[in-house]
Amino acid sequence: MNTAFASHHAKRALPDFDKVLDALGAWVLAIVWISPLLFATWAALQPSGTALGLDFSNPLTFENFTYVWNAVPWIGYFTNTVILVTLILAGQLVLCTLAGFAFARFEFRGRDTIFILVLLQLFILPEVLIVENYAIVSKLGLFDTALGIGLPYMASAFGIFLLRQAFKSVPVELEEAARIEGCSWMGVLWKVYVPAAKPVYLAYALVSIATHWNNFLWPLIVTNSPDTRPLTVGLSLFGAPETGVDISVISAATIMTIAPLLIAFLIFQRQFIQAFLRAGIR
Amino acid sequence: MTAQTPFIQIRSVSRVFNGGNGVHDLSIDIPRGSFVVLLGPSGCGKSTTLRLIAGLETADHGTIAIDGKDVTNVPPSKRGLSMVFQSYALFPHLSVAENIIFGLKVRKTGKDEIKSRLTEALNVTGLEGYEDRKPAELSGGQRQRVALARAIVAGHPLCLMDEPLSNLDAKLRHSVRKDIRDLQQRLGITVVYVTHDQTEAMSMADIVILMKDGRIEQAGNPADLYLQPATAFAAGFVGSPPMALLPASALPDAVIPPKTDAGRLTFGIRPEDLVLSTDTSTKAWGISATVTGSEFLGAETFVYVAIPGTSGATARLPGQVHIAPGTQVSLSWAGAAAHWFGEDGQRLAPTATREAAREPNTSFETDTAIPSL
Amino acid sequence: MTAQTPFIQIRSVSRVFNGGNGVHDLSIDIPRGSFVVLLGPSGCGKSTTLRLIAGLETADHGTIAIDGKDVTNVPPSKRGLSMVFQSYALFPHLSVAENIIFGLKVRKTGKDEIKSRLTEALNVTGLEGYEDRKPAELSGGQRQRVALARAIVAGHPLCLMDEPLSNLDAKLRHSVRKDIRDLQQRLGITVVYVTHDQTEAMSMADIVILMKDGRIEQAGNPADLYLQPATAFAAGFVGSPPMALLPASALPDAVIPPKTDAGRLTFGIRPEDLVLSTDTSTKAWGISATVTGSEFLGAETFVYVAIPGTSGATARLPGQVHIAPGTQVSLSWAGAAAHWFGEDGQRLAPTATREAAREPNTSFETDTAIPSL
Amino acid sequence: MNDMARLQKQRLALYGWMLAAPALALMSLFAFYPAIATFWHSLFTRGTTRRPSVFAGFENYQDLFADPTFATVVWNNLIYAGVTIPVSIIFALIMALWANAHIPARSFVRSAYFTPTILPMIAAANLWLFFYTPDLGVIDQITGFFGASPTNWLGQPDTALASVIVVTIWKEAGFFMIFYLAALQTIPPDLREAARIEGAGRWTYTRRVLLPLLMPTTIFVFVNAMINSVKLIDHLFILTKGGPNNASKLILYWIWEMAFAYFDSPHAAAMTILVLLALGLVAVAQFRLVEKRTHYR
Amino acid sequence: ATELTMYYPIAVGGPLTDVIDGMIEGFESENPDVKVNAIYAGNYDDTRLRAVSALKSGDPAQLSVMFSIDVYDLIEQDLIVPFDDVVKTAEDKEWLNSFYPALMANGEVDGKTWGIPFQRSTIVMYYNKDMFREAGLDPEHAPATWEELVSAGKALSKDGKWGLMVPSTGYPYWMFQCFAIQNGKELMSKDGTETYFDDPAVIEALEFWRGLATKEQIMPEGTIEWGTLRQAFVQGQTAMMWHSTGNLSAVKREAKFDFGVAMLPKHKQPGSPTGGGNFYLFKNSTDAQKEASLALIKYMTAPERAAEWSIATGYVGVTPDAYETDALKSYAAEFPQAVVARDQLEVAIPEFSTYDTARVREGLNNAIQAALTGEKSPKEALEGAQAEANRLLRAFH
Ligand SMILES: Nc1ncnc2c1ncn2[C@@H]1O[C@H](COP(=O)(O)OP(=O)(O)OP(=O)(O)O)[C@@H](O)[C@H]1O
Ligand SMILES: Nc1ncnc2c1ncn2[C@@H]1O[C@H](COP(=O)(O)OP(=O)(O)OP(=O)(O)O)[C@@H](O)[C@H]1O
Ligand SMILES: [Mg+2]
Ligand SMILES: [Mg+2]
User: Fold this and answer.
1) Which residues of D touch E387 (CB under 8 A)?
2) Which CATH number fits domain D71-296: 1.10.10.10, 1.10.3720.10, 1.25.40.390, 3.30.43.10?
3) Domain B242-357 has CATH 2.40.50.140
4) Which PANTHER family does the record cross-reference, listed alphabetically (chain D) (predicted)?
5) pLDDT of residue C366
6) Does ligand 2 lie within 6 Å of residue C15's CB atom?
7) What's the pTM?
8) Is D280 on the interface with A (CB under 8 A)?
9) CA–CA min distance A83, chain D (Å)
10) With an 8 Å Cβ cutoff, are D244 and E370 in contact?
11) Residue C325 CB contacts under 8 Å (≥ 6 apart), including other chains
12) Relative to the CA of C160, which of C79, C136, D33, D80 has its CA 20 to 30 Å away?
């Protein structure tokens, strides 16, 4: 009756060759990609002056970390950075939410023109406007304050754009349902749109934090005191244009600046990436 | 219509969109406590009408009054109504319970009251035990029930529903249909219900308002619509399979009503009213037709026939019927079963005789298990 | 089953997912040129079976042969079949024409041949004039037809369809159903069709394979399933409204088949086989029940009754029937209409008598327009 | 139309404005106003004690076009953009495909790709500086292991720019990967199955289905990459300072030099305006394309 | 009380802000009526940017440490005032004369003193005594002439190690000044309005530099990275390197071998440029502030502080007196390499600086790099740079 079959137990194919290649490729690339960080870790554990040899027989040492730790008030800088990053993020979230909401759901004359203007801001590089921005911050009396560092970044075109997209993808019915249930406009925003855009917020927060955690020049320029300066200023002390840097020390300093962020990322990696995934940024 | 003032009064309301679509000069009276279905093909303005009542659209002209109060320019939240959306519009980040009490919280209802109302709504909709789930963790039917619970929890006397069942599968739709109707009757609320599914309209409505191109085609109780469709459109829209509509010119002269012009008349016959006979000699008259196919549905069989000069007709026969495509048959019907429509699509009176035969009756007996051979 | 070798032979195939779900030890023979429907409730393994045939899943055990060739480990593209997905899986960036000829192009078919096949496929599916639209610019029904056209354009002898109509509305579903069936017959291809809608299965299939929990519950032609359900599950799943299934203990002794234990039997009766009588004295026996509601559907009315000790039943009556909820009625049926199931849910033989009464017949006459009062 | 309806519309418009206003105000303050001031500034000569600033019209712009360094820098930046944009996009795509595939240790792989994004550019550049050290550096040690002779990566005109480009790609690709990863998740899996049944192999599927579907993301990423190809110069300060002999000098670095090392802010301003114009033009073209290509969504 | 805002860069690695803060504290306790905000402002470029931003937007700052060679630009931009306007007393004038003249040279323009040396370096030759021994050379005798340099270099270049490395990124003009002055020619006029790039002696100097790689093959080809050179030296990649004295402390810390520091070899004459940062006084400050600033600068450059700063950084002590302090004396005794830079100051010349200095310098840098990478011949490259410099400086004659 079943001539076509040699046996009832079908031979199973070998593990897919493609899949093995994929995994190999992915791993190799991953290792290449973090190799600078691996190298930095290695260098930071080497005595000054021997890091480049890649001589694995050398004993590991924590002296670089001790040296770097004692050199700079890291705790203070760390606190400043956290405050700064939080402040910027908070400002961005509020401003971009309001503006994104306006662009997504309100009809007003000139809306599209203004939105194009907003997008243009993406191209206006704050790096070259430092002198002008310094003057403005200084005139506003915000010099040497966290707010002064943060203010120029708060109206983020990128954020407005992302949130507008996110809000636009929220079904209108949700808004209508909320309105029928008695929500005001602000209520609709707060109770419907913001929760619906949560993944986008998370994703955006990640980008924002990574950016501002690492910002150096602007905070340096508009601050005067260690009371407001961020971590990167501490890091900059170990970069030495006049004499060339000490790789072990700078590695140790680098690792110390990014460690909090990196650890947070490693712990919340899944959530972060999921957040991005769910954000469906397109 | 009814003697007392209607609960909802829509007077000459228009809402025209840029494309010229929308609703035009609509007047509807909806009695308190009734279940009114807005029926019609896609794009005919059902949702627009509903949204006008809800206040989600603003009328260009005309007035809308709910419970004797002019609400034409009142925002949705102040109209004292609730709404169930086709997509349910559940808030995905809130749990079932939070979804249901959303409006109560917004309106700052007291904690205890919220609690008792929630319990009741969960109870009524059979959602106990699901309070803490997120909508994404529910099946379609459960989501539908949450939307329902949210609509009834506030105790508004009016509930609007826009195709609330169209995302459910056939089986579920049937049972939820019953639940909604029961609920409406139990709570004594007024429901305005939008659907394009005539079965739904027929089985649920006290009053069906059939719309077409932004205007009302026919309004009345389901039996009216089925038995006395006011227009050819209504005749074709209500009933499944739909009424066959044939040009009178394709019929034998014998059946054409006297004093009418066959060239301008349309004849309509419901599938269940068509009599098929393979023995073409037994009847005095009959339309000869060819069977093109049949569909067995368990309790009944649809037989499709081609009639020269027409787009064909469907006959609905009880039980299983094997009939080969290509078979020649003769079609006939009881005279009272015929519907006639004029050139303008309007029904031609009189057709009262047959209607009488279907008068309500509470004493009867039926056995259709064996088809009459 | 059939004398010639089956076109598709599935032998003891299992595919078990981590959760333990999937399909278990499945054996199916599908004759060439037949229209086979896999029917069953959600999660019963219909899609998995289809995907096993397609090669999108690989069997853990067992073998699959198509056209006499063992394809168990052959990739989908080499199995010589096409597939229509529930979501249609149209490529949103390609036009209708490009979507249809996607596979031909991938397989490097000659330009002229592509052109002529495309023309034919467009023709067959009635899509002429839509070649250049993007899927987003089509209605649901049109998208469905594009998916169909893509499936048939390659001329594969086997086409798999996974709930291809579930995204269409009721009206459209009905007409596309017919189209698909016609197409299959015209092209003479074999179709394996997945649905959870029993109406669809009944009206389209040559063979229905009813599945449950990853196993086959009953396989046979639609009439078999409807008239002789092999199990209580099959009886309840096929037919709408479904067959009422009552514990035999709730019935009068008179109707219980001899030599059986009423405490362990289940009795089944189709809605159209139920006889309702308000005059409880006319019959020798009858089950007393209370009407709980009714639903008018134009050609017929469903009457819902509550029977003490059971979950109730539905009677299907032709025409419009007004019967007030709360009315006491007596239920009865023709003896041949009864179905009996054992404790294990299996049908109890013999029930052949009634089947004979439904033998195919091409000469008949019927008029159900006036209910027998 | 009903008066109340009109009134309502006006009120909504007002709300819209009010919501957008704070962001617009800040933007005007820190982007638009400075940009306009920059333009104004670019019309004047550089003021010194000897020669006070005077209105010069477009002279500063003419000077730029006459300066051979301008050509070098623009050319460098074009190469920089021409390589970093496509290559980082391709890497991002490959990474996304891998990070989305079912491979072992997938979270490690994802984290690895993403890590450069959170490293400060200055720190990253310092690390790479030592990667590139001739002979001693990690790269030369590895290539040396395979018998290649040491290369002075940053010290030769023909490798300096390439070395800078590598760092940029390394820094950017992981960031863009995230966007592709997100987009990939929105593509229904049955499209792949449909393509498989139609006989499409992996490559055909990628080319004929995946890439077109990812087009909107690609455009989004492209715009970002383009902005970055102008903006991302932090590492130049550490790696090459634009050398040797301008071989790796990019526009923004040059603007920076002009403004803050040469004390020549008018020319820097003129250059800034030119960059803004060029970016604006490309952006407009991009958005046009976006609208066209994403039409089907 | 007078309040002062001072910017300062840190250009050598390490936590030197503490040292500065300590000095400021010392000053404040000696001058209780003066309050000083000493603000670390990054590297030299960042500091310049910071100062310019602040001054242009009207923020008060009274003094800053900035590149000694920025002096012409700062004058041109009308940002600074000469010390001559502030220095009143004879004692103060005396103080102006207390610095090494070589270090003062950069700050003197148009007969006025605009900058006071603070963190100043010069270029010295570091060499690996172990490698010298291995190659059979006298570890106590560093090459003193170009010829000795080449021959020692040849003996030392083997096994993939190099004899000599002279960095050519970052500050190529600075290194080039060494070759030029040793070959008998300075690169610019004292008043900063002329350059002599196309002088035959200068061209010859560049040819010699390039020849070290191409002809003598004691140095790798292409440019040599400034930032990583020290690492190459301490890991024994090269036997000799020319580098800033600012590196001394780091090399001392990192080198695991016996190393020597020597003056640069001479050719027609010995010589090396100075480098680093000077104190400048900003314009818009009150007289009281200027006075206080002067007091602060005096405090910061006083011998004790200069010695402390020198030991901490490797920079040269800015006054001869600094080397007379106990601290520096004992340091020098235990680490004689520390005084080589001072000794070399005798023959030191000012760091390259002209009007429009950054641009002129950029032209020179490019010319040097073009020659070293073989893109152009030294002559061609330098003539091009000279033409460019002429164009830029024409306005200042
Ligand atoms: N906001 C709008 N802008 C422009 N036209 C609209 C708008 N809303 C509805 N229309 C048009 O008005 C007509 C009626 O729309 P409506 O939504 O009321 O139809 P419907 O009967 O609910 O149809 P469906 O069954 O498809 O939901 C349609 O032609 C539709 O295209
Ligand atoms: N990839 C998978 N991984 C794990 N479990 C799966 C997978 N695919 C299917 N299943 C499980 O296998 C069972 C059968 O799934 P299948 O998709 O075949 O059901 P179905 O009959 O098609 O149902 P539906 O009508 O809902 O489509 C289900 O319980 C399902 O949860
Ligand atoms: Mg609608
Ligand atoms: Mg399925």
Assistant:
1) none
2) 1.10.3720.10
3) yes
4) BLL4140 PROTEIN
5) 33
6) no
7) 0.81
8) yes
9) 18
10) yes
11) C291, C292, C293, C294
12) C136
